[in-house]
Write a structure and sequence with these properties.
Layout: H1 2-21, H2 31-92, H3 94-105
Helix pairs in contact: 2-3
């Protein structure tokens, strides 16, 4: 009778130990420690996503910025020169300015 109880106790303790060893440990703990662990992983993943997205966005923004800048230079610089020329003509007048320049040269 004493031997049967010892065997039963040994079997029960082995079963309990085996059951505890098979318990999944992938779940983070609760409380502040678990929250901070999950938050840290989330921020790290978000940082990687922001880095990849930011790189893609910067490349495309630079390409479109270059296109807009060069087009603006080609289109608007002659317009600015023409406006400046028109202002000079309106200030001196066509005939007065021409005569004024002739008098200055002579």
């Amino acid at each position: 009778s004493h031997t049967a109880v010892s065997i039963h106790a040994a079997t029960t303790s082995t079963t309990t130990t085996t059951t505890m060893a098979k318990k999944p440990t992938t779940k983070s703990g609760g409380g502040i420690k678990g929250f901070l662990t999950r938050a840290g992983k989330s921020f790290y993943t978000g940082g990687l996503f922001a880095k990849e997205s930011g790189s893609w966005l910067a490349q495309h923004a630079a390409r479109w910025g270059f296109i807009v800048a060069t087009t603006s230079i080609v289109v608007f610089m002659p317009l600015i020169f023409e406006i400046a020329r028109e202002q000079q003509v309106s200030i001196y007048g066509r005939k007065d300015g021409f005569l004024f320049l002739l008098c200055m040269c002579a």
